[in-house]
């Protein structure tokens, strides 16, 4: 995926319209077989510019860590929230992603004036919002939120690897790579796998082993 620098154009327009605290929100881990889906919410400080903000999928891991440090130090507010594998299995991944994003936004203190969301609209928010198609590539606040969420989730997956190294979560972060699928065939699903997710090469009944 080609890296595209996110801009502050939309946020600046909204600030001129009177929205002072413009929040970007995004989620990561939606397509994984294991681990939570994690959402980030960020209100950037217009007076403390951060260069290099882009969709987290296009930013190298070491640079993501550096950007995470800058974002969390310079932002007016930031928060992360998640939905667990059990919740994903219970209400489906789309609804779980929306819940995680809503929780992240509602954890901000004070609450933002308007929320910019990557593609979706979040139900039951108390403030104005706007869905932005390809927002993590176009909007700096959404890109910042994607980086905060990605770094947070990657750290969680490394912690899960330390607890159970059989699956290689530190390498693939729960995505359906060849070595992950090979480990699942050997050991079955663990307690952090999403049992409602069945890769094409893995029958549903194979998830009975913890």
Provide keyphrases for this structure.
210 residues; globular; 15% strand; Nucleotidyltransferase, domain 5; 8 helices; 5-stranded mixed β-sheet; alpha/beta
Q: What does the secondary structure layout of this molecule look like, with pairings?
A:
Layout (H helix, E strand, L loop, with lengths): L8 H8 L5 E7 L8 E7 L17 H14 L2 E7 L1 H7 L1 H14 L7 E5 L9 E5 L2 H4 L1 H24 L5 H4 L5 H10 L23
Parallel strand pairs: 1-4, 4-5
Antiparallel strand pairs: 1-2, 2-3
Helix pairs in contact: 2-6, 3-4
What does this 3D model show about the protein?
40% of the residues lie in helices and 15% in strands. With 210 residues, the protein is an alpha/beta fold. The chain has two domains: 9-150, Nucleotidyltransferase, domain 5; 162-208. Strands 3-2-1-4-5 form a five-stranded mixed sheet. The longest helix is centred in the last third of the chain and has 24 residues, at 140-163.
Give a brief description.
This protein is of the alpha/beta class and 210 residues long. It is 40% helix and 15% strand.
**Name of the CATH class of the largest domain:** Alpha Beta
Strand/helix succession: HEEHEHHEEHHHH
Largest sheet: 5 strands, mixed
Report the CATH superfamily of the largest domain: Ribonuclease H-like superfamily/Ribonuclease H
Q: In one word, what is the shape?
A: globular
Number of helices: 8
């Amino acid at each position: 995926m080609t890296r595209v620098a996110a801009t502050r154009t939309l946020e600046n327009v909204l600030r001129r319209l009177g929205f002072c605290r413009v929040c970007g929100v995004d989620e990561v881990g939606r397509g994984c077989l294991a681990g939570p889906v994690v959402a980030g919410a960020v209100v950037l400080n217009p007076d403390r510019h951060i260069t290099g903000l882009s969709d987290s999928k296009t930013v190298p891991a070491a640079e993501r860590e550096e950007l995470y440090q800058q974002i969390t130090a310079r932002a007016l507010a930031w928060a992360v929230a998640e939905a667990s594998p059990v919740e994903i299995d219970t209400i489906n991944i789309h609804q779980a992603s929306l819940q995680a994003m809503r929780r992240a936004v509602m954890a901000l203190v004070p609450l933002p004036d308007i929320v910019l969301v990557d593609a979706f609209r979040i139900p039951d928010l108390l403030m104005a919002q706007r869905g932005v198609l390809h927002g993590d590539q176009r909007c700096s606040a959404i890109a910042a939120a994607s980086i905060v969420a990605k770094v947070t989730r990657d750290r969680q997956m490394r912690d899960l690897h330390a607890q159970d190294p059989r699956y290689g979560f530190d390498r693939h972060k729960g995505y359906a790579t060849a070595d992950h699928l090979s480990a699942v065939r050997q050991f079955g699903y663990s307690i952090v796998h999403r049992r409602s997710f069945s890769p094409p090469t893995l029958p549903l009944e194979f998830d009975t082993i913890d």
